[in-house]
Amino acid sequence: MDDYYDVAIVGSGFGGSLMAMVVRRLGLSVLLIERGKHPRFAIGESTSPLTNLLLEQIAERYDLPRLIPLTSYGPWQRTYPEVVCGLKRGFTFFHHEAGQPYRMAADRGNQLMVAANPNDELGDTHWLRSDVDAFLVREAADIGVDYYDQAALDQPQRNGDGATLTGRHGGQPFQTQARLVVDATGPRGFLSKVLDIPEDPFSDYPKTQTLYSHFTGVRRCDSMAAFQPEGIPPYPLDDAALHHVFDGGWMWVLRFGNGVTSAGVAVTDAVAESLALSDGEPAWHRFLERYPSIGEQFADAKAIMPFVYAPRLAYRAAKSAGPGWVMLPSAAAFIDPLFSTGIPLTLLGIERLGRILSESWSSGDLDARLQEYSRVTRFESDATADLISGSYAGMRDFPLFAALSMFYFTAASFSEMARRLNPSLVRRYLVADHPEFGAGMRRCAEMLRRRLNGTATMTGAGSFFADVADATSCLNVAGLSDTRKQNWYGVDLADVIDSAAKLGFTRLEMRRVLEEAPWAAGCPLPSV
Ligand SMILES: Cc1cc2nc3c(=O)[nH]c(=O)nc-3n(C[C@H](O)[C@H](O)[C@H](O)COP(=O)(O)OP(=O)(O)OC[C@H]3O[C@@H](n4cnc5c(N)ncnc54)[C@H](O)[C@@H]3O)c2cc1C
After folding, report:
1. CB 394 within 8 Å of CB 406
2. Which of 71, 131, 338, 387 lies 20 to 30 A from 154 at CA?
3. Which residues contact 294 (CB under 8 A, 6 or more apart)?
């Protein structure tokens, strides 16, 4: 360890290691400090098209070509078969009633499938974080990041131009100086504790808890009679982030390629209390008894690690930057695993911070820029929390939940296309700063919350669906919110061509662009 680093990063999850690589590529010296040791379990596994595009763009901007194969399933399998991941073709949702086996409604009103990519080759992934994080920390060390694991840090002492870091590593004390300390230790993490930063909870957000583990022997839904689709679904049901939704919560089921499945429930305090969730494994079995078709899916499943119970999921720190320190978005706030928002929010933070360091490291406005970073980080996490709290309010009544989810899918597909084709249209996460779209999203989420707490009635799911369709139409480039599709949304490039004007193209121009685009390879193109 040297006695001075430009940047010290605390925490070597994927976020800390990637940030360290970015800093190194900017020509700065960087120390990465981890209290544990890789490989180790971590949660936060499911990616999305925007996640993978952000990773690709960071890898390209900072000359990290070895990370590019991690951005889609086919190249990952060919390049790093030893780093385990799972195939994610889309987002699958089934709605359950307590005590009742799942039966698909004739109009598919109790399920939703939204494809995220056109084929396995271009598929998204679930990251087995123990493998992925260990891979990334090795990559960081290989490009010159100094890495200290099994380290215990004391409170940093601020001085002149930075902070003195002291602690112990391998039983020995150490001391070094850093101009900037980046906290990548996750919610309620290192700087929150040592700087005594209070929690500032999201407003209007339900109190939620979680219980999860990794399993073997989880059945595929497409092998079970209860979930048999009628017709050909947009992608195989289970090659997805599979969600079981019920009143007051939901469950994720993410399959990896090595036979292991990640599964867990996120539920309101009321549901958690009814299950005595803090009991761990016995509560898990009570949950499976309550929802028979989920119970059948897990009938032969075995947990391969102890259950993790967290009494509180969401978190927002009152501050996320100050003179000489800054938190990654994942340390500043966490909302819920729903819609896989944690990793993209973190990547957006890394992108933002990388730009600030490259532009302002040597100028006098670094601290002011960190304040700007902090405001954006908060805006993006608040917008996500607002949508997810509305989603919790809709979980009892699936058509409302599915309708509200169209804001997420519209924002995600628009953001991906804008980043690929017309960066001048790129906005904040969930496009929440778009005047019409953002206001519509807040209004519709609020409508569901008010309905749940009894302060408002609604005219019915049909009119709510129409409201959402109207509010999302300005950015809808993926044929979403279409009743004719009966909740099955495949990838159809005709939708992108039909929406070319929303992305600043004519139909003909868009067709030409799509013909050439490697990320659209294998998708049939309509003539225009
Ligand atoms: C139940 C659950 C499910 C989730 N599912 C998803 C999902 O499917 N998709 C998605 O996009 N996001 C998901 N998330 C969010 C996701 O987990 C985070 O966004 C992501 O892990 C953030 O990565 P990170 O590297 O910043 O932090 P982390 O992964 O939390 O890593 C933090 C690292 O810091 C180390 N550390 C902690 N304290 C110290 C210390 N004092 N000193 C040194 N090192 C320390 C830890 O050992 C760890 O290695 C989920 C979160 C939860 C809670």
Report:
1. no
2. 131
3. 96, 102, 244, 251, 287, 288
Over residues 141-154, the pLDDT tens digits come to 999 999 999 999 99
Helix axes 14-25, 342-360, angle to 10 degrees: 20
Q: 89 in a domain, yes or no?
A: yes
Range of the domain at 241: 85-126+206-310
- Domain tally for the chain? 3
- Say whether both 303 and 325 belong to one domain: no
Question: For residue 13, which atom of ligand 1 is closest to its CA?
Answer: 25
Would you say 32 and 146 are in contact if contact means Cβ atoms under 8 Å apart?
yes
Rg (CA), the chain: 23
Point out the ligand 1 atom lying closest to the alpha carbon of residue 313: 53
Instruction: Specify the 3-state DSSP secondary structure of 390.
Output: helix
CA distances from 527 to 297, 396, 491 (A): 43, 42, 16
End residue of a domain, out of 310, 342, 358 = 310
- pTM exceeds 0.90: yes
User: How big is the chain, counted in residues?
Assistant: 528
Q: Is the CB of 35 under 6 A from ligand 1?
A: yes
* CATH classification of the domain holding 184: 3.50.50.60
pLDDT tens sequence across 456-512: 777 677 799 999 999 999 999 999 999 999 999 999 999 999 999 999 999 999 999
Residue burial 104-126, b: 16+ Cβ < 10 Å; e: rest: eeeebebbbbbbbbbbbebbbbb
Q: 343 CB under 6 A from ligand 1? A: yes
Place of tokens 């889609």: 72
For residues 103 and 277, the answer to whether their CB atoms sit within 8 Å is: no
